[in-house]
């Protein structure tokens, strides 16, 4: 067997084993050294290949697709700095627990550290930000090496999903010639008895031990002021279980917008979504002091909630993690429960007594929440505000679609203004590392799942990742972008830095003064500007009738926006405290 045949069969067996394990999508960043992987992935009948030229954009595209589909997605790039451009998305995937399989082509060993072009150190180049690293052997076509190729593919796929999901890197040293022979017979190794990896998986669900469940229910059953908190997580089935637990125990559920609890058909009568507005007041935080807190998912977006738990650091706090990890920046004493969150809810329901008498506690949270919602959802300004943009999206976003949200002000406004709805809308955001890079590409990648996406993004995040629009144009993906343009970093207007008038604009405001309609023209987008909330909703409805890329710009003023938000918050807290008299 010559080298070209060995290269072909070795690489094809690796790819086919990924397909056997459930891989359906690969994002390819074009290049020379990755030719074997690129061509063979593209040839496989059960793989959908997406060609994204810019590597940083490609990696975030893969991240968005993997996040939306909740299954591993492969990335392929050539050697050199191409792989380095994947780094930000790999970091985000690690912290947000998204399964990515990064396949980096490399120079063979004899061309490393000798001045060969496009040769950098790629061994464990992502450090501790990948769950597993493996460098493949130089391709060989023996039965033993084809079996090895399949074994490593199966292992790599498994590592992206085992425990907390996350990224994996497999490095491929390829010698020239690089072009595989796709005319060879049976390159996929269809004789599975001869070309099997010998690896299969069965995974169970983690339950709490019966004695642990009894211990917890005894503690919780003796308390009247319990609190369930749901932070960012991706399991859309979880909402039903946690809301059933809340109903059984007659206690409130604080639901972060990324918890997938605010949306869907489940019973949301005890869901509190306006807590960020009224927990800004220290007196209210003290009045709502709980007896215990059970948190599911990552830390909520709300900084007011962070103040709340820090001030009640002695309150028993329990954090449910499905597999492993310690996600609690408050520094409080915490009991970690490592078990499937849905099963934890079910077990606590099964062993606990009938509905508890916590009516007064629950009623107070519901009353404050209703006051917050009345103020947050009332009125319409002559010029649309950033909060109104979220209200408009929430009102008209179609059922069975996704809302992808940028960081900084965008996710905070969604936290404040996107209330509960019976629509099945998944709300996604890159909250692992909380960066503003790659957001557009992530949203476009989510749209590649086949479900329409609405992206809410600020002008700085949009500027960082305009390259991401190319894939939307290239594949005519159904995405509507609501571009909130306040000409800079709007979130800094809410922070102490805003008091430094001398340096604020240059260092924090950072206006870019760009006519973004030119970007829309460049990438073939349907581009409009909305002046009011009503106008925005009309333009959103029109965009949802189009199959391709639509951009709706909302122009706001950073200073006026901060004042508008503070006025809303002040009215909410004032009305709540007036009710105490």
Automatic annotation (TrEMBL):
Catalytic activity: isochorismate + 2-oxoglutarate + H(+) = 5-enolpyruvoyl-6-hydroxy-2-succinyl-cyclohex-3-ene-1-carboxylate + CO2
PANTHER family: 2-SUCCINYL-5-ENOLPYRUVYL-6-HYDROXY-3-CYCLOHEXENE-1-CARBOXYLATE SYNTHASE, PROTEIN PHYLLO, CHLOROPLASTIC
Function recorded in the entry: Catalyzes the thiamine diphosphate-dependent decarboxylation of 2-oxoglutarate and the subsequent addition of the resulting succinic semialdehyde-thiamine pyrophosphate anion to isochorismate to yield 2-succinyl-5-enolpyruvyl-6-hydroxy-3-cyclohexene-1-carboxylate (SEPHCHC).
Annotated ranges, domain Thiamine pyrophosphate enzyme TPP-binding: 441-554
Cofactor annotation: Mg(2+); Mn(2+); thiamine diphosphate
Protein name per the record: 2-succinyl-5-enolpyruvyl-6-hydroxy-3-cyclohexene-1-carboxylate synthase
Homology family: Belongs to the TPP enzyme family. MenD subfamily.
Residue stretches in coiled coil: none
């Amino acid at each position: 067997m010559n080298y070209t045949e060995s290269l072909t069969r070795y690489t094809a067996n690796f790819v086919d084993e990924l397909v056997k394990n459930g891989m359906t999508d690969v994002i390819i960043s074009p290049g020379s050294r990755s030719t074997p992987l690129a061509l063979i992935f593209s040839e496989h009948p059960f793989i959908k290949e997406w060609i994204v030229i810019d590597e940083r954009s490609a990696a975030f595209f893969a991240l968005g697709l993997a996040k939306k589909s909740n299954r591993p997605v492969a990335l392929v790039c050539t050697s050199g700095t191409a792989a380095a451009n994947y780094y930000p998305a790999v970091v985000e995937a690690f912290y947000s627990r998204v399964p990515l399989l990064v396949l980096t082509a490399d120079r063979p060993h004899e061309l490393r550290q000798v001045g060969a072009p496009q040769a950098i150190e790629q061994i464990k180049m992502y450090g501790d930000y990948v769950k597993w690293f493996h460098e493949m052997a130089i391709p060989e076509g023996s039965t033993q090496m084809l079996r090895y190729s399949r074994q490593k593919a199966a292992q790599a796929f498994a590592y992206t999903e085992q425990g907390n999901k996350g990224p994996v890197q497999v490095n491929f040293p390829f010698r020239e010639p690089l072009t595989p022979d796709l005319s060879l017979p049976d390159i996929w190794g269809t004789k599975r008895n001869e070309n099997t990896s010998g690896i299969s998986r069965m995974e169970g669900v983690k339950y709490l031990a019966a004695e642990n469940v009894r211990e917890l229910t005894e503690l919780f059953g003796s308390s009247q002021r319990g609190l369930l908190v749901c932070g960012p997580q991706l399991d859309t089935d979880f909402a039903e279980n946690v809301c059933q637990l809340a109903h059984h125990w007659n206690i409130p559920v604080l639901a972060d917008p990324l918890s997938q609890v605010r949306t869907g058909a489940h019973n949301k009568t005890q869901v509190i979504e306006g807590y960020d507005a009224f927990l800004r007041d220290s007196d209210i935080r003290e009045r709502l002091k709980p007896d215990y807190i059970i948190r599911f998912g990552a830390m909520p977006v709300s900084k007011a909630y962070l103040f709340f738990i820090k001030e009640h650091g002695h309150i028993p706090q329990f954090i449910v993690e499905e597999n492993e990890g310690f996600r609690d920046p408050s520094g409080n004493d915490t009991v970690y429960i490592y078990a499937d969150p849905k099963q934890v809810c079910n077990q606590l329901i099964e062993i606990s007594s009938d509905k508890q008498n916590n009516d007064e506690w629950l009623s107070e949270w519901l009353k404050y929440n209703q006051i917050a919602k009345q103020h947050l959802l009332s009125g319409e300004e002559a010029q649309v505000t950033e909060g109104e943009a979220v209200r408009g999206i929430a009102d008209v976003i179609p059922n069975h679609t996704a809302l992808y949200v940028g960081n900084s002000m965008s996710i905070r406004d969604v936290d404040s203004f996107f209330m509960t709805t019976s629509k099945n809308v998944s709300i996604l955001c890159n909250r692992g590392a909380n960066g503003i890079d790659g957001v557009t590409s992530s949203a476009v990648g989510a749209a590649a799942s086949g479900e329409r996406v609405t992206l809410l993004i600020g002008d700085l995040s949009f500027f960082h990742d305009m390259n991401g629009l190319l894939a939307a144009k290239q594949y005519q993906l159904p995405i509507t972008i609501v571009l909130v343009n306040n000409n800079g970093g709007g979130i800094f207007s809410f922070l102490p830095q805003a008091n430094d008038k001398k340096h604020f604009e240059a260092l924090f405001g950072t206006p870019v003064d760009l006519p973004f309609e030119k970007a829309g023209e460049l990438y073939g987008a349907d581009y409009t500007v909305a002046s009011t909330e009503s106008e925005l909703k009309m333009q959103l409805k029109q965009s949802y009738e189009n199959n391709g890329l639509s951009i709706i710009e909302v122009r706001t003023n950073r200073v006026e926006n901060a004042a508008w938000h503070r006025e809303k918050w002040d009215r909410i807290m004032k009305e709540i405290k007036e009710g105490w008299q």
